[in-house]
Structure formats: structure tokens, C-alpha cells
């Protein structure tokens, strides 16, 4: 007798991934619900299972949830220090004060770190990852990334973990045709691998099972993680847009002031645009430059003076980027503007203020050398 249970169907699809053969499952597990509910107000993949939330918080993880690794294994390298939500008194205060770089462990190595990550971003950057997918579409990817980012926030992981997880997902999709019912399993496994790279505390198998509402069994997560590591060749530590935003902002602040509002907005724009397949085709360094430029324009449209920081950012971009990369940053920024307009309009429902006019791109001609 043929076994048509969801578990057997999932096993078949995992085997198909390993053999680069796509099999169309008759049981689509969580994704049937996922896409039928895509227009609902809740998360497209459904709310995070309450039993998972209880398991997570009952496991005494809260005490260490904000402790995470940094790029060099230190807790106070650039990403950790600059991304703190609370302003560190005595280090930097309002946007009118500069940074005291002497307090940043590893700051003297930032240029070397940047050069290394800049050289690595092309080999680690997936291009047209959906081209080899006969079933998965860009809309499915958008829905999946949206869910993954919200799970990342729920777990109190650092945003850079989400950026890395999305990179792992896209590279896996580029290397392996995937059946529809394995999408959520792939995203969860990618987030777990990224958390092992970036975080000190990661959820266990039982938490992952509960997070997906019991759709998958523990051995499914183990098999998918092994498959992902195998297909990616254990090349995991990809440069992310988050790192390049931090680096560009710090270089800009060297000759002026640190504008925390612009940097935070740039990170929000870049994180939101992870769902946009066209934007993610640009290199992470290009996305970072585009996010900062879009953020300064947004602040100016709100009546906030960001001229000094904007000019410093432009100087840094012109000094570090080639002419072709500057043109790509301009194009990427305009795409971000169009994509972000609905999100930004919703921030001021009382006034109805439109922060960006898609028909009027930001004045980025300054990026083009005379």
C-alpha cells in the first residue's frame, strides 16, 4: 500500500532535492495555508505557534538573548556597538556629536574587514536564484522572507541574522530545485544556521518543530540542515547589507557627526526590501549605499536637516565605489523608493504625507563624477 501521509510526501521531496529532481507533492503541508492566507492581516505564513513561544520563554533564554557574537568573535565590535538601541552615554549622544572611536574594539581593523567582505560579496551573492525553480515563484519568496524576518524579530535575534538567513535561502534556491512544501522547512533551517553563526543562543529541534506548528518532524530539520550545508559547501559567512551600512555610516561620521536616525531608517528600508526580489539582485554593498541615500532623502522630506550627513555619505560612496557601482546604487535607490512608498505613507495617516514621490526620484546625480 502506498503511503500518502504528509510525512511520507515530505520525505519524498527531501529525497528529490538531494537528487536535483523536483517532485510535485499532493500534500502541500503548511504552504497551502500560507498562500491561501496571503492577503490576511496576519503574517503570511500564519502566526507563530503559541506553544513555540512558551517553549522559548520557558527555557530561560531571555537572560542571554541580547548576547551575540560579532564578526571577529568579540561582543563589542562595530556591529554590536553601533546597533545598540540605547544610546551609550559618554560615547555618543545626539546626532550633533561625533563618535568616540577609541571605545570600539576592533575599529582599527575596519578597513581591512571591509576589503575582505567586499572581495567576498560577489562569490557569496546569488543572482537569479529563481531561474531554476519550476514551482517556487518570486511571490512565494516574498511571502517566505516576510515570515522569516518576523520570526527573527520574535526570537530577539539581531537583524544581521535575518540578512544572513535570506542569503542562505537564496543561494540554496539557486543550487537546488525545491518543492513547494519544503519552503518553510528551508527557511527555518537557514535561520537556524544563521543563528549558529551570529547568536550565542539558538533554538533546539523541539522549538523548531513547535515554531512550524508540528508540520515537520525533528529528522526533517536535521536532513534539511545537512542538505543545505552540503549544497552551499559550508560557505556560510556571507557579507550582508547590514555590515556595509554600518561601515559606510561610520566612515561618513569620521568627517562629521553620527546621524542615528538616518542609519536606523536605512537599516529598516534595507530589511524591508529583502522581500523584493529585484532589489536583492544588487550586491549588498550597493544595497547599503542605496539604503543610506534613500534614508537621507526621507529625512529631508520630513523637514529634518540631513545635508551634512548626506554629503559625507556621498563622499564615502564616491571614494569607495566605482562609477558603475555608483550608477547601480542610484538605480537601486530608486527601486527602493518605489517599493517603500506604501510602507512610508502608512507612517503618517493623520497628515497623509507622502514621503517619496515615485515619479520624482531622489537627487542622486551627485554620485556621478563630473
UniProtKB/TrEMBL annotation:
Keywords: Cell cycle, Cell division, Cyclin. It holds the Pfam family Cyclin_N. One of its GO terms (biological process) is cell division. Coiled coil: none annotated. Residues 239-362 form the Cyclin C-terminal domain. It comes from the Eukaryota. Belongs to the cyclin family. This is Cyclin D.
Amino acid at each position: 500500500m502506498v503511503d500518502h501521509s504528509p510525512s511520507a510526501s515530505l520525505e519524498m521531496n527531501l529525497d528529490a532535492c538531494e537528487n536535483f529532481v523536483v517532485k510535485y507533492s499532493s500534500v502541500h503541508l503548511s504552504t497551502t495555508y500560507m498562500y491561501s492566507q496571503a492577503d490576511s492581516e496576519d503574517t503570511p505564513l500564519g502566526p507563530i505557534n503559541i506553544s513555540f513561544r512558551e517553549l522559548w520563554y520557558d527555557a530561560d533564554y531571555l537572560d542571554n538573548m541580547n548576547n551575540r557574537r560579532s564578526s571577529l568573535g568579540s561582543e563589542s565590535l562595530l556591529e554590536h556597538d553601533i546597533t545598540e538601541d540605547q544610546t551609550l552615554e559618554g560615547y555618543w549622544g545626539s546626532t550633533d556629536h561625533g563618535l568616540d572611536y577609541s571605545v570600539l574594539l576592533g575599529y582599527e581593523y575596519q578597513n581591512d574587514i571591509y576589503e575582505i567582505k567586499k572581495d567576498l560579496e560577489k562569490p557569496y551573492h546569488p543572482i537569479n536564484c529563481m531561474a531554476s525553480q519550476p514551482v517556487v515563484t518570486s511571490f512565494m519568496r516574498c511571502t517566505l522572507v516576510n515570515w522569516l524576518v518576523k520570526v527573527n524579530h520574535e526570537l530577539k535575534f539581531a537583524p544581521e541574522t535575518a540578512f544572513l538567513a535570506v542569503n542562505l535561502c537564496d543561494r540554496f534556491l539557486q543550487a537546488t530545485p525545491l518543492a513547494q512544501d519544503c519552503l518553510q522547512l528551508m527557511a527555518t533551517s537557514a535561520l537556524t544556521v544563521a543563528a549558529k553563526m551570529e547568536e550565542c543562543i539558538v533554538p533546539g529541534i523541539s522549538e523548531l518543530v513547535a515554531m512550524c506548528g508540528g508540520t515537520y518532524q525533528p529528522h526533517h530539520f536535521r536532513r534539511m540542515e545537512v542538505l543545505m550545508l552540503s549544497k552551499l559547501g559550508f560557505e556560510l559567512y556571507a557579507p550582508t547589507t547590514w555590515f556595509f551600512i554600518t561601515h559606510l555610516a561610520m566612515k561618513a561620521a569620521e568627517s562629521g557627526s553620527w546621524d542615528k536616525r538616518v542609519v536606523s531608517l536605512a537599516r529598516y528600508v534595507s530589511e524591508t526590501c529583502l522581500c523584493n526580489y529585484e532589489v536583492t539582485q544588487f550586491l549588498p554593498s550597493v544595497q547599503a549605499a542605496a539604503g543610506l541615500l534613500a534614508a537621507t532623502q526621507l529625512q529631508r522630506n520630513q523637514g529634518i536637516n540631513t545635508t551634512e550627513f548626506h554629503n559625507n555619505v556621498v563622499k564615502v560612496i564616491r571614494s569607495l565605489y566605482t562609477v558603475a557601482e555608483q550608477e547601480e546604487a542610484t538605480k537601486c535607490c530608486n527601486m527602493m523608493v518605489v517599493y517603500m512608498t506604501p510602507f512610508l505613507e502608512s507612517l503618517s495617516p493623520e497628515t497623509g504625507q507622502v514621503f517619496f514621490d515615485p515619479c520624482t526620484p531622489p537627487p542622486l546625480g551627485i554620485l556621478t563624477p563630473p
